[in-house]
Specification:
With 292 residues, the chain is α+β, with helices and mostly antiparallel strands. It contains ten helices and twelve strands.
């Protein structure tokens, strides 16, 4: 299978910035890891895709971004975390949720699964004392529209967001997305050209499934054939960096009394990583050591 990839482009003499991602493999990995239903694959897949793209832009060597979608739908909440290489991980409350297709378009009903009410949260941590936290209400639960609203209201950057995950009976056929951001000097002329280009463009997952390269997609959605573009040489992937040490830290945060309680009642503790389902076992001895 073709590798996942992120590119960043400038169009119209730098007045417009376009970033594109192919995330098929990372979304497929999430699907198999969490045994996701098709609807959950589409929902979490879209969130993983945009989080990976935004992660790639984070400054600082240890910059990370966490996104959360907390809607009132049956899917429950979703969380994704990416590092500044675009490596991403995530989970969803109800991974096996199965709901009927959207009767209007016959597609997976992500909006209904996520819910039409709730909040999205974006937490950017670049190693400063306080992370940046942005939040905006959910608009449609379709993720892309919710992030478009986030960029417009919370970051005041007019941005077109497209995210797509194509699922068939064998798994993820294609997944990806793009962000088109207008720079302050972009004018009516550029806006009209982009609107026209977008009207004529297929969906992102269709273009990827047709085998289009990211650069071709960037050209198609901007209507500009003379892009300045930059392709990153790393391959973003679904990655979890959990370890027994990190699990130990989260055990400590539950407090002495709780740990004493576990020792007395269970005699051991088993912690499962939300992101990759790896199990970590702590014996009675290890728990007693933690108490000190
Ligand atoms: Zn893990």
């Amino acid at each position: 299978m073709q590798e996942d990839k992120i590119i960043s482009c400038l169009a119209y003499n730098g007045k417009v910035n376009v970033r594109c991602i192919k995330s098929t493999n990372m979304v497929e990995k999430a699907r198999t890891l969490h045994d996701l239903s098709p609807t959950a694959t589409a929902a979490l897949g879209r969130l993983l895709t945009i989080t990976s793209l935004l992660g790639k832009e984070m400054k600082g060597e240890k910059g990370t971004i966490t996104t959360q979608v907390k809607g009132n739908g049956p899917l429950g909440s979703m969380t994704a975390v990416a590092d500044n290489e675009g490596n991403v991980k995530g989970y969803v409350s109800n991974p096996q949720l199965d709901i009927p297709l959207n009767p209007e378009n016959g597609k997976l009903n992500v909006g209904e699964a996520v819910g039409k009410e709730g909040m999205i949260y974006i937490i950017k941590d670049i190693g400063l004392k306080e992370p940046y936290i942005g939040m905006t209400p959910i608009i449609s639960g379709e993720i892309a529209e919710d992030f478009t609203n986030y960029f417009a209201t919370s970051e005041q950057t007019p941005t077109v967001v497209a995210l797509g995950v194509l699922v068939d009976k064998n798994g993820v056929k294609a997944a990806g997305g793009y962000l088109i951001t207008l720079m302050p000097d972009a004018g009516e002329e550029e806006i009209v050209k982009i609107e026209t280009a977008l009207k004529n463009a297929d969906s992102i997952s269709k273009m990827l499934d047709d085998g289009k390269e990211l650069i071709e997609i960037a050209e198609t959605v901007t209507g500009e054939s003379n892009l300045m573009y930059f392709e990153y040489d790393n391959i973003p992937s679904y990655e979890c960096n959990c370890s027994k040490e990190k699990m130990e830290k989260s055990l400590i945060t539950i407090g002495k009394e709780e740990i004493k309680d576990i020792i007395e009642n269970e005699g051991k503790a088993e912690l499962v990583c939300h992101f990759c389902n790896e199990k970590y076992l702590f014996s009675k001895d290890e728990l007693e050591k933690l108490l000190n």
